[in-house]
Amino acid sequence: MSDQAGIATAPHARVENVRLGQRLSPAGGIEILGADLGAPLSPSLKALILKAFLDHRVVVVRDQHLSTEEQYAFTENFGELEEHVGRHSDARYGIVHAVTNLDKQGNPTDALETRGNYFWHTDKSYHALPSLMTMLHAVELPPEGGDTQFANMVLAYERLPEEMKRRIEGLRCVHSWEASRIASGSRPASPEEIKERPPVDHPLVRTHPDTGEKALYMGTHAATIAGTPEAEGKALLAELLAHATQPAFVYTHHWRPGDVVMWDNRALLHRAVANYAMGTHRRVLHRTVVRGTVPV
Q: Hey, where are the domains in the chain?
């Protein structure tokens, strides 16, 4: 599998009434058209989605209008759903939670308590078992802007100088929920949250469990390098992040109403973009996350 293959000519296939659409960028992304994700998932459609997911990192399914229950049921096809950091009263469907720019009164605001989504990260990397897949369903969108960007960390690693590859071989990052909150200017982590999510360390270069490819594994949750002076570790991570988020490695998703976007946290960083009037327009997306495995 290569991220360089098939850029000029988009692949096409049909499963029932479903077809693969255009490749969305050289850095990743593929459309799936004609699917109804609210219906039971057939084996053939599941196979098509999984192949697109591994080949293109980001899968975009257009024109969906999923209830919370339907999104839950669809996501379950790909593994165990994760709990969110927040607490929910509904033991089942609270796992399908809203990512919004709304305050506690339901009004748009640019003064968010949690701002980590606007920094490059891979979901739940501060867990011993970080996220495999994240799924967002566009429910309400601003008239323009509110994009999400994805950085291909396989491409970023491949294009590192050989000297840097040797330098970082075997290094491990310390990922910290508490440090991430501080770095993003978010509400400080509570004592309970810190206790539930102590720092963990993962390989700086992880091997994808399904494809065997190597990828940088870092982002704003990565506080420093284990066994390295803090300032030196932070400087190395900043250098790698600047390299990995160059435009050549980034796909920017311009949301349409009804989009369902699924992405591979094992191979990507992502961030929301505050390129809209956050204090004026509502942005509401429903999110589900599938638990992954220990990075190696």
A: 14-291
